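Table S5 (text form). Sequence records supplied for joint modeling of the two-component complex.
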Amino acid sequence: MGMESVHNTTGTNEVENYDFTDSELIYYVRNALDSTTSDDSSYQELVGLMHHKERLSPDQVALLSTCLKALSGAVSCIDMTCHKDLLSSIFAMSLWRHGVEASDALADLVVSLAVSNGKFVDLCLAMLVRNFMPPYSFMDSLKEPRGLARKAHALSLVHSSLESISRLVPLAPTRLAALVVQEMPRIQEKEKIGQAGALTNIRIFVENMFRLESGPVGALVGSTMLMAVVDRLLDLDLDISWDDILKDESSRGIFEMELEDWEYEGEDADDLEQIIGQSLSRKALSRNASAEQLDALLVLTFEHLESCQTQGRLNEVFSVLLQSFCRTVLNAYKSKFTQFVMFYVCALDPENCGVSFSKTLVDLFCSDCPPLTRMSAAAYLASYLSRAMFLSDKVVLTNLKRLVDWCVEYCGIHGDDCDLNPEAHRIFYAGCQAIMYILCFRMRGIITVPWLKSQLSMMPIETILKHPLAPLKVCLPSVVEEFLGQAKAARLFTVSKTFIFDDLLESELSRAFGGLERLDMFFPFDPCLLKQSDSFIRQHYIYWSMVGKHYANDEQGSSDEEEDEEITVKGNDNMAMSYDDEGVNLDDFDLAMTKMSITPKNHSLIYGYGGELQELSRMPSKIRPSMSPPEL
Amino acid sequence: MEGLVVSEAKLVVVVPPSMSKRIPEAVLQELSFHLFKYNEIFGGVLLAYDIRIDGKEAGVLQDILPHICVSLSGNLLVFNPKPDMLLEGTVVKLTPESIHVVVLGFASAVIVDEDIREELEYVDGRDGEVYQSKYHKHHVIKIGTVLRFQVKSLDEDIIHICGSLAPTGTGSVKWLEKRNMGTQMLDSTKGADGFIIGGMLSDL
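The corresponding structure-token record, covering 836 residues in total, follows.
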């Protein structure tokens, strides 16, 4: 074969003596492809040319490029069975490894192969998907400018090739979506290539998934990509065990900390608080590979959502994410972080996405879905409406009204002679607890606006609370206590009966209605414990310290009308404003993350610490600090 | 175009009990799953359906799983290209070695140089890449042209057709129709007056 003679005689002059046209080269390659069964070794030489592992000289790269281009013109002669070796060599090549010209030629060849024969489509797509990630030997150079340039070129080739194939083979995207999900790096991969390598791989892979989602084939594969990313987030989320964290000795202090002691002991205490807060916050998870991956992927997702907002297609992405949330996250057992994807997409578009999310949650709660789904929806709704700074009090009140209406209807159906059975009425108690929890956070803002206050006053909450089903006895004592305190301060209504909870965080009754899943103590939007992700969330987030501050002021001045008025203005519905006005550094909220968080709770924790309940009971805060794992 | 068939069908869809309150949705979901996929049950690729629910009855599948059998009847639009059929599609890419076509917006087809009759030659000229007839200068195949070609084989897995432009009745549909129209007019003219209307054929 003519080309081999060029290869064998590497002298430049001799190469120049040959003047091949493209069609001649294709003719030679076709002959070589036909010679698989004959004694002619040109086919084997062709396979050998594709099978390079060592670094190639410029001449070799030029030869490789020429061969690849010629092969592109001869794809119709390539047979799946006869040319198995050649195909294996081609599909084992990397778009990252060779120079620009060779990579371009390889990408063209892969496209030509895919569109020439239906049998090659899957193989070509799989090869391109594998090229989402660099070869292992290339990992280190990704930090250098040269490596980044190579990455940009390789990925641009991968995506342009995928687009070409999708244009020429319209059904290819359906295969592509499945292949991408199948080729996603496994969580266990870190055991093979190390934590850093695994993190780099999954990051690049997810970057590519988002690129596909926002690209021309996004209309066909976009929803699969988003759902697969959310599924992976959830996998990583569930891979982080609460038990591992709670067993960590360093995390014990969090449960012993008394919030206001820290707050009132001056600067030294602040420093100490910050040190302890930070160390407790992230120490446990900083050692956790899954948490590190999850944090990195959440950041990528948040950035992608921002780009979707810029492109004006956030609503489209939101509907996919909402579907994914309802299908997986909602019913996942106490997902810890993945739900913040929904929180952030809502924060980016409160008027549409934010409102729609809350409406969906209320709809789910009021639907005829299985009880656990409805209870989970109530937990998500309570936590979301409480924590979302971007939601107006009006929106909160609208959703609250639907919850109250449902509970009132439930009370009506069950009359006055029903038994107090937490297990049987668990959905009702979940709804009641959601109402109280939301009001713990939002009552302060609502009562400052007269017409909202009058709407709140008109809601028959008292009817629900005084019903024989006695939600005040069954719901979490800490929530009930805080709620009653605030309701009393706001003169919303009074409950004549005294409830003595002995500062218990939970009661036997609340345990009963929460069931084994402890949905009574699940508040999914408790502070995000992942450092990088939290930096996106915090600006949209209501920390308990923000509410607590107003509450504390309120409590001191509750007997003084004028002072009360002043507090009312400070604690207006625009929490972000008051937050900034007070000049509070956002970083200080690391500590606040430890406050007003109840979920999830480990039984062994409460009972395991035994006598420490005494210390907890001394805590002056109305709602206890986090019983969730220490801030990670 | 050949290969498209509307067939009457009677089907039974098995629905799990969890969907008992949403039978129509479950049925549509099941049928939609089969769209644009080759399925021997339908005798080709299901493109569209117009069905009605005749009845449903509960049962136990293989003595283990409870289920609801939903009987359906209606019309199915099925695409079933067979060798030697003539199909039409839009040209999406031209290379010296091949012509790439998309049929009905979802099926890909390729015609390699060996199956392109010698009359049609590749030209990369001022107007871009085209295949042009040596004998009929107006017979031009370029990107966007609706092409009639003969089916050689079909990869049912991904609905990839291998086609041919060897028969003379293949090529640009626009040109072929003009030629046919010209031939008909020629016949009618011959029959009436025994004359050929000047210039008509030469323009084709």
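Note: DSSP finds 35 helices and no strands in chain A.
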